[in-house]
Amino acid sequence: FGQYRDDLEVRVRVSPTSGDPAVDALARGEGIYLGKGDDGIVFRVGDEAVKVSTVVPYVPFNYRPDITVESSVARLEEQTRLSEQMRIEGVPGILESRFIRHEQKGFAVRPYVEMVGELGLEDLDRIQRQMIAMHARGYALRDLVQVGTRDGEFYFFDTGKAASIADRSEPSRRDSLDCDLDNLRRFYRDNGCEYVALGGQGLADDWERLVRPFPRRGPEPDPVVRLATRERAHRIYEALLSECSASGRSAEECVEA
Q1: What distance in Å separates the CA atoms of residue 36 and residue 39, rounded to the nearest whole number?
Q2: DSSP 117
Q3: Chain centroid to CA 21: how far?
Q4: Contact at 8 Å (CB) between 43 and 24?
Q5: Are strands 98-102 and 139-140 parallel, antiparallel or unpaired?
Q6: Which one, 3, 19, 98, 228, has least CB within 10 Å?
Q7: Around Cβ 253, how many Cβ atoms within 10 Å?
Q8: What is the spatial distance between Cα 247 and Cα 31, in angstroms, rounded to a whole number?
Q9: What is d(CA 34, CA 40) in angstroms, rounded to the nearest whole number?
Q10: In this predicted structure, what is the pLDDT of residue 223?
Q11: Packed helices 170-190 and 121-136: angle between N→C axes, nearest 10 degrees
């Protein structure tokens, strides 16, 4: 039960003999604890972040008796493999990472990113476009949107639940996309901005809702509500034209589609 005790106490007990500088520095006690999730404990070691496999989830109700020391290491290795596959295939916002298996632990090492404060609409839209590109390449994040900055660029620093959705059934693929779109809306809301989809499935959904006929019921909305609705419709229309222009289609073809 040593692994369970160490994970609960946020300790990493391995020898500094892995051959990887970041892992060995962490083994010597030189890491700074950053946080814990359901599948890993994260430390900062110099200019890198090291995620360590764990058998004890951050949320106790997420504990699964089938998660063993070996399966927790294998899970982190698979997460690292998928992250690297996404990066190599051109998904933006993904950092290079490497996996080290040492003694009874797995370690995923990647460059450290600085946490961000409240973001403005321009930055939020940049991050949304990264996620749209992720979806276009057949992947989904399937988790809360968590980003950091490095060298002036935004990066997703937690891709533990990401998955390839290219070969999934349409209902499964749509569930993953809906999860990402819901989390994007929450991300915008948490930063005090209104979410309007800029492309992909989200834009198609917004456009459908905008043009779908609906019955007039109840009193007229007040002028502030009408103005907000008009401004939102304008943003949706502008986003639709921008996406269609990028694909070489005319405004008329966009609206008809």
Answers
A1: 8
A2: -
A3: 27
A4: no
A5: unpaired
A6: 19
A7: 11
A8: 47
A9: 11
A10: 43
A11: 170
Please give the backbone phi and psi of residue 16, each rounded to the nearest 5 degrees, phi first. Answer: -80, 55
Token pair of 98 as six digits = 């490497």
85: number of Cβ within 10 Å: 14
pLDDT reported for residue 86 = 98
Task: Determine the Cα–Cα distance for residues 72 and 105; give it in Å rounded to an integer.
Answer: 8
Longest dimension (CA), the chain: 73
Crossing angle for the helix pair 121-136 and 200-211, to the nearest 10 degrees: 110
Q: Return d(Cα 147, Cα 108) in angstroms, integer.
A: 17
Q: Give the amino acid at 162.
A: A
Residue 8's pLDDT is: 72
Nearest to 149 by CA among 163, 169, 162, 130: 130
Instruction: Quote the pLDDT of residue 169.
Output: 93
As a whole number of angstroms, the distance between CA 203 and CA 247 comes to 15
Both structure tokens of 109: 């090492």
Q: How confident is the model at residue 219, as a pLDDT?
A: 55
State which residues of the chain have pLDDT below 50. 213-214, 221-228
pLDDT reported for residue 182: 94
Q: Do 74 and 91 touch, CB atoms closer than 8 A? A: no
Residues 143, 38 contacting (CB under 8 angstroms): no
Nearest alpha carbon to residue 141 among 186, 81, 181? 181
- Distance (Å, whole) CA 124 – CA 154: 10
Order of strands across the sheet with 153-156? Answer: 114-115, 147-150, 153-156
pLDDT score for 232: 58
Residue 83's pLDDT is 97
pTM equals 0.78
For residue 88, report the phi and psi dihedrals to the nearest 5 degrees. Answer: -65, -35
